[in-house]
Amino acid sequence: MTTDAGQNCVVSKTARIGENVRIGHNCIIEDDVFIGDGTFIDSNTIVRSGVTIGSESFVGANCIIGEYWMDFCRDRKHHSHPLNIGAKALIRSGSIIYAGSDIGDNFQTGHQVTIREKANIGNNASIGTLSDIQGNCKIGNYVRLHSNVHIGQLSVIDDFVWIFPYVVLTNDPTPPSDNFVGVHVHSFAIVATGAVIMPGVELGQDCLIGAGAIVTKSVPPYMVAVGNPAKVISDVRKIKNKVNGEPVYPWREHFSTYMPWESVGFEVWYRSLDLDEKKQYTLSDLIAEPSVC
Amino acid sequence: MTTDAGQNCVVSKTARIGENVRIGHNCIIEDDVFIGDGTFIDSNTIVRSGVTIGSESFVGANCIIGEYWMDFCRDRKHHSHPLNIGAKALIRSGSIIYAGSDIGDNFQTGHQVTIREKANIGNNASIGTLSDIQGNCKIGNYVRLHSNVHIGQLSVIDDFVWIFPYVVLTNDPTPPSDNFVGVHVHSFAIVATGAVIMPGVELGQDCLIGAGAIVTKSVPPYMVAVGNPAKVISDVRKIKNKVNGEPVYPWREHFSTYMPWESVGFEVWYRSLDLDEKKQYTLSDLIAEPSVC
Amino acid sequence: MTTDAGQNCVVSKTARIGENVRIGHNCIIEDDVFIGDGTFIDSNTIVRSGVTIGSESFVGANCIIGEYWMDFCRDRKHHSHPLNIGAKALIRSGSIIYAGSDIGDNFQTGHQVTIREKANIGNNASIGTLSDIQGNCKIGNYVRLHSNVHIGQLSVIDDFVWIFPYVVLTNDPTPPSDNFVGVHVHSFAIVATGAVIMPGVELGQDCLIGAGAIVTKSVPPYMVAVGNPAKVISDVRKIKNKVNGEPVYPWREHFSTYMPWESVGFEVWYRSLDLDEKKQYTLSDLIAEPSVC
């Protein structure tokens, strides 16, 4: 063990810390933590009992990783649960991630993010600054949440979904109640800034929700919905880039930055997947019906 | 005094700390703080001069309690004022509460909450993650603010109000100006996600404001208002649960989780109150006129 | 050097710290930092390599000033760049400001603010609690952003602009893409709560955008635009104060708190500027055409 820790750290003797791990100043590493090789925990950060952080990760300053559940309403006790974060995570400063979640590899957050318990998050997901993941939800692979997105409990977000700032996925049809119904966002859907999605709504694969839309009914695949209440006004495949007149949707055929098809294009990548690989993604049979309008 | 403090703490000799208080690592407890019996102050938290925190409370990590006023615009000085927080508070990590407010018992916050000075907050209030209470406002008993709610100065929120994420109560009719007029939300009103309430508007008892509504005029009791600008479209008493067809409003007759009538129902609880108890709540004469439509 | 530092601080020997500087507890001051005379760095705050903070400033507790760039997506390295903050700054607790920006004098932030790299911010700017400045943008003199404002990359905000809570300046016309186009907000414009401004839109001088507006087209000077999608409905010069019937816009003729014309009024101040002074501001030829409608 070759830990390089700064000043004023409090590191439990039961923490298992890999090779070439760096720890900043004033850090608190509690019991039974496991930190993979080559990971950097920056100053003032607290890693609570039962957390596993994969190798080659970076956890910024002032974070709380593995925050305990505070069920004070009923029993006024702390509860510790495991939290697993995969390899090569980049968790930016000021973020709070609860115990009791599973998060894949190449995870990335902005600053001051909150992720509560029972969040099941895939690989290569990215959650922007100030986003508030309420827990008890599923977020797929390569999902990109921009800043200040609010994901209510019971939400299901499939792979390759983009959600822009100040979007809210709600869950209570008759507030206040205890009868929550989550939103389901299907693969490749795009939800623009400030949209609010009402409880139980399904956003179809490749659909586009306009900025500020209040979405009260499910939106079929490829449809564009805008307004309050949101109405379907078009098909994404009719949208052209205003500068060059080229089609821009379905976006997977026109955009690939950081996507697994970055070097080859979506169709070549998709056809190259074997059945086991396809099972890792939530994808419809996208190639059989080519995207003609 | 049986204080159990972690490492690297800086605790003033004039702080009065009760029995069985636990203090984490790296905490700063300034002069003249009073901490009640059995309270837990978690690591990295700062409690500033003049703060009282009641017994059996929990203050999460990375909080600043009693933040001083920084009137730097004019005089570039700090000012310390008392801050009183009642018993059994649960203040989650990363929250900042200013000096100069009074907060009742059983207070609860999410993470990264900001509460500025001159906030008068009742008992059993709950303020969600990232909410921003601008101070100089009144928040009643059993008020529930969900995540990321913005309460402008001069707002008045009566008892048993529910406000959902990204709602803003504004206060400037002709921005920018110094002529603020607050919003008044009456008891049992519900404001759904993303609604903006314009200055001086009154939201009547038991009314329901729809998601994304921009409310420019006062809404009478029991009315449902939606849209931009918001219009009254219905009466809450006509709304049925879509699953079982049962009425759901007024919600106090159908929902009781964590409410004082949890075991007996609203009407029995309300009739059992004596006059002194009724004075603690902002309630109209709710029983005389039964909720027929 | 007369540094007054609290307990458990880690201060680099290469940091240059002015006269009468106060540093709280648990602070980390990294290499090559310069802190001007009379400045106060509060507890738990990190000032990273290469930061300059001007004299007579205040940096609240739990801040990270000069946060390094984490280009982990590509090269998994930290990069340090200079950050210059002028004199008399007031940076409230919990804020994170990246390396690689230039910020003028009399800068002010609320709490938990995030400012990313390549932000060019003038003098006397104020950025409210929880606002999220995405970097690579320009913010002029005397700009006031209220709480929870999101400024996308490539935004340009001229002098004396007011932006209210939960406003978003967007930048991607066909999300997701790499073809960003910023919003340009001209001097004296006012954007009310919850408005979303679409990519490439220009908001004309002295215009007023209503609460919750979704602005898809540019708005001419002095016009009032509201709704989703926003439409021009009036001229600001027709708006009267509801209480006293007086005109309230252009606001520079009716409001002066903290403005440079506070004691003399806008026109006297403006006429008194010489050519060099005028160059400091982004102002049209405001006096030649008096504000008749």
Describe this structure in words.
3 copies of one chain form a homotrimer. Chain A is mainly beta and 293 residues long. Helices cover 4% and strands 29% of the residues of chain A. Chain A has 2 helices and 36 strands. The first copy, chain A, has helices at residues 266-272, 275-279, and strands at 4-5, 10-11, 16-17, 22-23, 28-29, 34-35, 40-41, 46-47, 51-53, 58-59, 64-67, 69-70, 78-79, 83-85, 90-91, 96-98, 102-103, 108-109, 114-115, 119-121, 126-127, 132-133, 137-139, 144-145, 150-151, 156-157, 162-163, 168-169, 184-185, 190-191, 196-197, 202-203, 208-209, 214-215, 223-226, 231-235. Chain A has a 13-stranded mixed sheet with strand order 1-4-7-10-15-18-21-24-27-30-33-35-36, with no helix packed on it. In chain A, a hairpin with a 7-residue loop joins strand 12 and strand 13. In chain A, 57% of the residues are buried. Chains in contact: A-B, A-C, B-C. Chains A and B meet through loops of A and loops of B.
Question: Main attributes?
Answer:
homotrimer, 293 residues, mainly beta, 13-stranded mixed β-sheet, 11-stranded parallel β-sheet, 2 helices, 36 strands, 29% strand, globular
